[in-house]
Each structure stands twice: as C-alpha cells, then as structure tokens.
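Our consortium's second objective concerns turning raw sequence data into structural hypotheses that experimental partners can test. To show how far this objective has progressed, the report includes one record in full. It was chosen at random from the queue rather than selected for favorable results. The single chain below, 161 residues long, was entered without modification.
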Amino acid sequence: MSFEQAPVARAQLLLRKPVAAVFEAFVDPAITSRFWFSKGSGRLEPGAQVRWDWEMYGIGTDVEVRAISPDRRILIQWDGPDNPTEVEWTFEPRGPDRTWVDVVNRGFLGEPARQLEQALDSTGGFALALAGAKIWLEHGIEPRFVLDRHPGALVEAWKGR
C-alpha cells in the first residue's frame, strides 16, 4: 500500500448557533463535557496544557494548546508523546446564527495501513463530536454518542448508565 501523502481525518458540520457560542463550546470543558469528553482540566487558552478524560472508558489524553484565534481557530497537539497528532478546528460564520465547523486531525504515525486506520477512526470520532455539539447547542440534549460508541469497553462504574 502506498500513499502520495499521509492520510488526515476530517469532519465538518453546520451548527445553527452564533460562532461565539460554538467556539466557546470547544474551549470551555464545562460545555464540551456535555457532548464529547467527560472531564477537562481547564479552558483551552494559548499555551495551556490541559487534560481531557473519557472516564467511561478509563482513558484520557494530555492536550497542548498551540494556537487560539477567538471565534476562528483552535490548534492543539494531543496523544503525545508516544503518538502525537495535531487537531485544528476552524469556525466560519454563515450568517448571524450559523457556524460551519471544520476539524482536521493530522500527523498519524506508523505504517501506511496503521495511519489510515487511525485517520478513519478519528474521522468517525470527530463526526460524532460535532453531531453531539449540534444536538447539545441547538436542543440542549446530551446525545450520549461517545458513551454509546463502544459499550463493550465501558469501565464498570459506567455500565448501565
């Protein structure tokens, strides 16, 4: 198997909320934990080092904030030091109450087949995160997508929730 360029993960979705509200949902862990990870140690701010946990699976990752442009862009590195990749969110207003969100995850390591596997898994994960953000921000419903994505992998304390 050969690739002309390394694979990237990409997910995009229109959220029917103002760009400031959508951006805030991704930098404030009190909001993000309603639709993606279960716990975050702090806001995403330039130069910040935070921890994101998916307690339902007993996993987490350290996040290094590389760049923030309010209401426009978030750039992080995560899953380091063993498997660091870069994640970039861009936020584009589409009128006063709509925001186009584009998430790109790049820099997968390993053999080409492993890179492709990681990119596909990441694409699915970010698609669910964006769909969850949409449901939470537009309707105030906690979607449980991430909790229900791998029910066989739930840690004991989360089973049956």
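The partners drew two points from this record. The chain has one domain: 9-151. The longest strand covers residues 59-69. Both points have been shared with the crystallography group to help prioritize constructs.
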